[in-house]
Automatic annotation (TrEMBL):
Residues 409-598 form the VWFA domain. Pfam families: VWA (PF00092). PANTHER family: NORD PROTEIN (PTHR41248). PROSITE patterns: VWFA. It comes from endosymbiont of Escarpia spicata. Residues 222-241 have a biased composition (Basic and acidic residues). Gene3D superfamilies: von Willebrand factor, type A domain. SMART domains: VWA (SM00327). This is Nitric oxide reductase. SUPFAM superfamilies: vWA-like (SSF53300). Residues 209-241 are annotated as: Disordered.
Length: 601
């Protein structure tokens, strides 16, 4: 009975305290593309990606109902850093869907302005607002509607709180007439959040935790649930908690207790926790502390991590090559790769692809007027005989013809991302690395049928030294059982220093004298490495490597299975120079067909 009464009370007080409008909510994933295009069209940095924002505590005074209900402590505000434009995952502040959508558009426009690190938040917000309205006068009507709706929602502080009242009056005046208030009055508490301005103290985005390999035999046969969320979350590493040492930490009996959340992600075989409950618990955590033991699990939550793969290393061929960006590329080859036939599960698909690709093989054509050949060229012989009969001098050279195979004059290098993120699962049966392996098999089978010159390499990195460059097939090698053995031996490596790998591939393709030279890049994520090679730095280095490849006369083209690739690949490769394979399991079949489209012109 007590629980029932408590549940009813919770529902009642929560409903009374509700100030949001979920029925009119607009989600970032619904407007993500529009916001990104608008931000760049208005002059925003093309290298920035649109990401979801962390919710953070605002510390402002709340209403009595909110304090009783225990909510409205946190708020999602927009901000911009050197890598991303962070916007709320959901905007449901207003009762009108159009106003919530307008707020996304306004925040994107506001973030275009010039940001000065040392400028106070209050004056900076007014300056950005005034500059945005001056540059884009068409936004003024939208801004005024947002201000009117926002002011109606703001809490009027108690008149006895003189300092907080002065703060609120200053903010209201600054919203109505940007630039009219010189400074924000001081108060004991921070002011109420201003959803039309950028975050006053943007949170630091934690570096993602990497994905570790599962121990052999650790994978269970239970249910698997993907944890897909709109809001980005922070993570940290933690040791495995044992026994009853979960969550409760006592300092001294006469002092307070401290309670910490523990999320049982890696459940043991005898447990059968409800996956939906575990997913809900994960979503409620601001920072995830993840540990791992060797026990098998009957069911699990699945999401991407980023831990180094523990596996035997490949054979280093030489000391490596030092690139202009001070990265050392070390060529490697599988040490224990045994020659093998094509896997049985790929043979049927390979036969179909070979039949299609054989039609692309250059046709056999007659070369006439040859000094020697397989047959006499009757036309040339008749001309020679006629000229001799009428007394005209004629050379007896070129009286033969020869049947030869033509040439497409094309070279292709396929560069495969073998970073540790390829150890993640695309479904209940295969990982990303398995999909890449099958793609390489079918790609090689298809190109062997055309006679085109091609090479295949894989790469991963650990900082700038070394860049591991795995040799699968060189231009001078024929496709054989040895090559298939190397493809079969690929495994997840370390990180994705894409710029260095592209530069090394460019050097290899430059040695080919073909008229057309194609560089295909197969990846599952954005550039990243341990030494701050991530975000904007990694993206710009990759973009520069792509431009260098184009200047060398190559055609770089990226194939990815990353669902968020549309945020950053247009900036790296340009529109029309990449493709997203939405179903990773389709990659093996799609890759050869994509090659046909790229080389058919």
């Amino acid at each position: 009975m007590e629980e029932k009464v408590g549940e009813l009370w919770h529902r009642l007080i929560t409903r009374m305290a509700q100030t949001l409008h979920p029925e009119a909510a607009v989600r970032l994933n619904e407007i993500h593309t529009t916001v990104g295009i608008l931000f760049r069209a208005l002059g925003g940095d093309g290298g920035l990606q649109v990401e979801t924002a962390h919710a953070s505590e605002h510390g402002a005074r709340r209403s009595l109902l909110h304090r009783i209900a225990g909510d409205s402590k946190r708020v999602e505000l927009a901000w911009r850093d050197e890598n991303s434009l962070h916007l709320p995952a959901v905007i449901d502040y207003f009762s009108s869907t159009s106003l919530n959508r307008d707020l996304y558009i306004w925040l994107a426009a506001l973030a275009v302005g010039e940001h000065q690190e040392e400028e106070p938040w209050f004056s900076k917000s007014q300056r950005l607002t005034a500059e945005t309205l001056a540059r884009f006068p068409g936004l003024r009507a939208r801004y005024l509607r947002l201000v009117e709706a926002h002011l109606e929602q703001r809490i009027h502080p108690d008149r006895r709180l003189v300092a907080e009242t002065a703060q609120e009056i200053a903010i209201r005046q600054a919203l109505i007439e940007p630039g009219s208030v010189e400074r924000l009055p001081q108060a004991k508490r921070p002011p109420q959040p201003v959803s039309l301005w950028l975050h006053p103290f943007p949170p630091i985005v934690a570096v993602g935790i990497a994905n570790g390999n599962e121990e052999p035999g650790a994978a269970g046969r239970g249910d698997i649930k993907d944890l897909e969320e709109e809001e980005r979350r922070q993570g940290e590493r933690a040791e495995k908690l044992k026994g009853k040492d979960r969550g409760l930490i006592t300092i001294r009996m006469e002092t307070i207790f401290t309670w910490g959340d523990f999320l049982n992600l890696d459940r043991s075989s005898e447990e059968n926790d409800d996956l939906d409950s575990a997913a809900d618990a994960a979503k409620d955590m601001d920072v995830m502390s993840v540990s791992r033991d060797a026990k098998a699990s009957t069911s699990k939550l699945r999401f991407d991590l980023d831990l180094p793969a523990a596996s035997e290393d490949d054979l280093i061929l030489n000391e490596g090559v030092l690139l202009p960006d001070l990265c050392r590329v070390v060529p490697m080859i599988a040490a224990n790769a045994e020659p093998m036939a094509l896997p049985d599960n790929l043979r049927r698909t390979a036969r179909k692809l070979r039949a299609q690709f054989q039609q692309l093989a250059p046709a056999r054509v007659w070369f006439r007027n040859q000094q020697e050949g397989s047959e006499i060229d009757l036309d040339a012989y008749l001309r020679f005989s006629t000229d001799r009969e009428i007394g005209q001098a004629s050379s007896s050279d070129g009286l033969y013809r020869s049947l030869r195979v033509g040439s497409r004059d094309l070279s292709c290098l396929l560069l495969a991302d073998l970073s540790l993120s390829t150890d993640t699962w695309v479904n209940n049966h295969a990982r990303v690395i398995d999909v890449i392996r099958d793609s390489l098999f079918l790609f090689a089978e298809s190109l062997a049928a055309t006679g085109d010159r091609f090479a295949m390499y894989g790469f991963s990195s650990r900082k700038r030294d070394p860049i591991r460059f795995h040799q699968l097939k060189t231009f001078d090698e024929n496709y054989s059982a040895n090559v298939r053995g190397r493809i079969n031996a690929i495994k997840p490596g370390y990180y994705t220093r894409l710029g260095a790998a592209i530069r090394q591939s460019t050097k290899l393709l430059e040695t080919q004298s073909s008229e057309r030279r194609l560089l295909l890049i197969l990846t599952d994520g954005k550039p990243n490495d341990l030494d701050k090679y991530e975000g904007r730095f990694g993206a710009e280095d990759t973009r520069m490597a792509v431009l260098e490849a184009r200047k060398a006369g190559l055609h770089p083209f990226c194939i990815t299975i990353d669902k968020k690739a549309g945020d950053y690949l247009p900036h790296l490769f340009g529109q029309g120079n990449f493709v997203l394979i939405r179903q990773p399991s389709d990659l093996p079949k799609e890759l050869p067909l994509l090659y046909v489209r790229l080389t058919s012109n």
